[in-house]
Design brief:
- The chain has 13 helices and 2 strands.
- It is mainly alpha-helical.
- The protein has one domain: MetI-like fold, CATH 1.10.3720.
- α1 packs across α13, α5 packs across α7 and α7 packs antiparallel against α10.
- The radius of gyration is 24 Å and the shape is flat.
- The N and C termini lie far apart (55 Å).
- It is a multi-pass membrane protein.
- Belongs to the binding-protein-dependent transport system permease family.
Length: 297
């Protein structure tokens, strides 16, 4: 038997190390994804063996379903608000903590702490805050703004925005830490040169800080987009998609359809659409933001 060459043995070692991880990835991720595409083309309740193949009928029905279209609209509004405000608030917080504040170590912990909480814990906490006799309305009365009292999660005009506030409270600190780490890699020489040229604070931010935040901006925008598009638990625990479908998103509608109404095939079709939306948006964002990174560099 011919002895294997050194290069061949190295390749076999690589295969031996990679194969278990690839097998786990295939079983845990690729398998369910592929099976989901098949289930989405069936009329199945998820429990019985009877599974009727109906092709693309679920998809055709979905895009004519007013409930699904409203859920899709709510999903995009929710995600858009999260991406804009989460990053818009995180940048100034990161800039503030990058300065010479004595308590910045404590403030980092305070701002980041909500991110480690379960969304269920956050949801139940804010349920108490948003109650008609909860902390928010009590505070409004205490400062003479009792006329602003609302049933925040019970009014279709305010419910979705109230949940946006919950998510921002939980994750702004997470985005802030990523921006802060990026800020601390910017060379101080650039700011010194700008000072010599007489540049003010705004010009330094516009021409130095903001362009060099491009890598962390890419990370934060993509993470915020994915997280908000697939958000489920914090919405379901607070409103279950109500009132009057005001907070119904694709994920909550998917859960209700598949597990409450036992229409697993149609629910899986929604999951496939959700997967494709997240995948396409993530790819487009990464390509556009990476292009900006290259341009700024």
């Amino acid at each position: 038997m011919r002895t294997l060459s050194l290069r061949t043995r190295e390749h076999l070692w690589w295969v031996a190390f990679i194969a278990p991880a690839f097998l786990i990835y295939t079983v845990i991720f690729l398998g369910p994804v592929i099976s989901s595409f098949y289930y989405s083309m069936t009329n199945w309740n998820g429990f019985t063996k009877t599974m009727d193949f109906i092709g693309f009928s679920n998809y055709a029905y979905m895009f004519g379903d007013p409930t699904f279209m409203k859920a899709m609209r709510n999903t995009f509004v929710f995600a858009g608000l999260i991406v804009i405000f989460q990053n818009g608030l995180a940048i100034p917080l990161a800039l503030a903590l990058d300065s010479k504040i004595k308590t910045k170590s404590l403030l980092k912990v305070v701002f980041f702490a909500p991110a480690i909480l379960s969304p269920l814990v956050v949801g139940y906490t804010w349920l108490y805050i948003y109650e008609p006799e909860g902390m928010l309305n009590m505070l409004l009365r205490a400062i003479g703004l009792g006329g602003w009292e609302q049933t925040w999660l019970g009014d279709p005009k305010f419910a979705l925005y109230a949940i946006v506030v919950m998510v921002l409270w939980q994750y702004v600190g997470y985005s802030m830490i990523i921006f802060l780490a990026n800020l601390q890699t910017i060379p101080g020489d650039l700011y010194e040169a700008a000072d010599i040229d007489g540049a003010g604070g705004f010009r330094k931010f516009r021409y130095i800080t903001f362009p060099l935040l491009a890598p962390s901006m890419t990370i934060n925008v993509v993470l915020a987009s994915i997280g908000s598009l697939k958000a489920f638990d914090i919405i379901y625990v607070t409103t279950k998609g109500g009132p009057f479908q005001a907070t119904e998103t694709i994920t909550t509608l998917l859960f209700t359809t598949a597990f409450k109404k036992d229409n697993f095939g149609y629910g899986t079709a929604m999951g496939v659409i959700m997967f494709l939306i997240i995948f396409l948006i993530s790819v487009v964002q990464i390509l556009l933001l990476r292009k900006r990174e290259v341009g700024d560099s």
